[in-house]
Design goal:
This protein is mainly alpha-helical and 210 residues long. The chain has one domain: Aminoglycoside phosphotransferase (APH), C-terminal lobe (Aminoglycoside 3'-phosphotransferase, Chain: A, domain 2, Alpha-Beta Complex). Helix content is 61%, strand content 6%. It is built from nine helices and four strands, in the order ααααββββααααα. The strands form two sheets. The chain has a two-stranded antiparallel ribbon. It has a two-stranded antiparallel sheet with strand order 2-3. The termini are far apart.
Length: 210
């Protein structure tokens, strides 16, 4: 069965099966030839937007400036890169009751494993309890503050990355979708998370290290 956010919420054990599928991917797969470099992609998208003279949502430059601090925090304690899916839309998960399969590897590359968990949480609109279950299944127990912090930070950063992608599609007049609405919605969600009372604590935990 192809998954959706609603199915992740309603199907018993689906969140846990996704966590275990990620763990198997990250632990058992051979390294990929490609490295998914979040901030290099953000830098590239920013250059494209500048060259296009693109329309930008209010508060855009403030968030990009704050992301520079997040970049520094993540760089304080680099983790071992693992083979990651990097684009875990709910629709890229197939559930067969006893296990979860992941499909569509277009964006796959070596990455921080917490990117996959954070991105799935965003795409599936997971709540705090679902995040707890996803992390618990992945780690087989309670995660460290360092791991939780990276997951939360990547939830914000994946929204920022795909915001920039959406703005480029809008600037290029891609008719496939309302990319302005797509970008603004993701950008607003990114800002809400980054301005939440808990976010600075997660960044501190990441900067402090394991």
């Amino acid at each position: 069965m192809t998954m959706s956010g609603a199915r992740f919420r309603d199907m018993p054990g689906a969140v846990e099966r996704a966590g275990m599928a990620f763990r198997q991917l990250h632990d058992r797969s051979r390294p990929f030839a490609f490295r998914f470099e979040l901030f290099a992609m953000i830098d590239d998208y920013l250059k494209v937007l500048s060259g296009l003279g693109a329309e930008l949502p209010p508060g855009y430059h403030d968030v990009v400036a704050e992301a520079a601090g997040i970049r520094k925090g993540l760089a304080a304690h680099l983790v071992e890169l693992r083979p990651c899916h990097c684009d875990p839309l709910c629709e890229n998960f197939l559930d067969v009751a006893d296990r979860m399969w992941i499909v569509d590897w277009e964006y796959s590359g070596n990455n921080d494993p917490m990117w996959d968990l954070g991105d799935l949480s965003v795409e599936g609109a997971f709540d705090a309890e679902m995040d707890r279950r996803l992390l618990g299944a992945y780690f087989g127990g309670a995660p460290s503050a360092f791991d939780v912090g990276r997951m939360v930070i990547y939830k914000a950063m994946c929204d920022l990355l795909w915001t920039l992608w959406g703005l480029i599609q809008h600037a290029n007049k891609n008719p496939a979708d309302d990319f302005w609405a797509y970008a603004v919605n993701r950008f607003e969600r990114c800002k809400r998370l980054m301005s939440s009372p808990e976010f600075p604590g997660h960044l501190t935990a990441v900067t402090k290290g394991p």
